[in-house]
Specification:
The protein has helices at 3-18, 22-38, 42-59, 62-75, 82-98, 102-119, 122-138, 142-159, 162-178, 182-199, 202-218, 222-239, 245-259, 262-276, 286-298, 326-338, 344-358, 361-377, 381-397, 401-417, 426-433. It is mainly alpha-helical and 442 residues long. α7 packs parallel to α9, α12 packs antiparallel against α13 (245-259) and α14 runs parallel beside α16. It starts with a helix and ends in a 9-residue tail after the last helix.
Amino acid sequence: MGGLYLDTIHKKGEFLHLTGQFEKGIMVLKEGITIAQHYKDKTQTAKLQALLGEILYRQGDYDQALIVLEQAQITIKDMNKPFIHTTTLRNIGFVYRNKGKYDHALEYFQQALAICEAIGDKLGIAMSLNGIGIVYDNKGDYDRALDYLQQSLTIYESIGDKHGIATSLGNIGIVYRKKGDNDSALDYYQQALAIYEAIGNKLGITFILANIGVIYSKKDMYNQAIDYLQQSLVMKEDLAAKGSIDYNYAYLAYSYAKQGNYQKALDMAYLDFDHFDKGGIAYQHGQIYTVVGMVLAETPPQPSPSKGWEQDSDSPSLLTESGQWGEVFLMDKITALTQLPETPNAYFEHGLQTARNVGFMATLVPALYEYGKYLYQEGDTESGMAYLQEAMQLATEKGMLGEVRKIEVLTNHCTGLNTTGMAVPWSFMSGVQLSEFNRYFL
């Protein structure tokens, strides 16, 4: 079996990857690697390993992806194979990005960019610029992110790469969303979706559907948000695209919480926590703690029925339509996973610390905002205002103009209406900013 056969296996693996048939792709590529190693074909071995590593990354198996990608680097060591080398560098960069290690990710993308520029590889340059733009977006440097992503889009358009064009359009949409320009974001998403549908890229379609759902959540259109997020979730489950499935869980949890459907919110939160332990996205993880904090803040604590408690007829009911103690049991399951006490403070604080550790501005700003709001409402006005002011400072520094305006509205109301240090009525706080939290939750 020669190089032509192994080329065919690689092309088949690429097709299975782009169409979201990950399990089949893994089987095909592993078989191809075995054959290539048997014939001591290092070039084909490395090509297949690089693609296998990318699929494992898409599945959310980051540790295994790194192992395979590092094997590819070892395979081509001392070989003049720049295209394989840069592909592997970029894939490692994406793994580190999803693990929240942004500086590591930038190193790998910049190495890839330098090599691609030296050999005049336009496609490689565009892909490397795209990766750098994504990392700067995650770091909250939105203007720099847009610069790199626009450069990437221009090159993709010049070489007619439709997949790359759609990818760049979608990523540009994300940056505009985080800057608070939801209409521009939706326009970019719709352009990307049309291309992905035309070329049959199912993985790209799931990505765009989820992001359109997030836009609708920011417009307080929660039914539409849930519809798009669920469509995306079903497709991801069918494709076994587990690498970003917690993104859907988090925003579904948020949307259900905003509707007052706390059982479904906690159900999504539990799935998110459970999935993260098996390979979730580190930079997204802090936000789900904040959602649980929101639910606990809105729902009076209830004794567990397993302890023989009988509900008072005047108490808010946690019973589901089927008569099960859904929210109590779900919270018990979440507590078992998180090992946190069942209080709003515990979840707000953990969400905030997780966001700080990763440095993901789109999670950190809303975590500060929501915890500050909660503390202020509870009467700890000094601490609450400190968190709100930190959120304002970060949002201002990062050019998150929509967030700046919303924080300013809230802080002005708080300082203008409460100078006594007493708790602000929850009905007032809900009216002012609970309806605004979706502007921040990115």
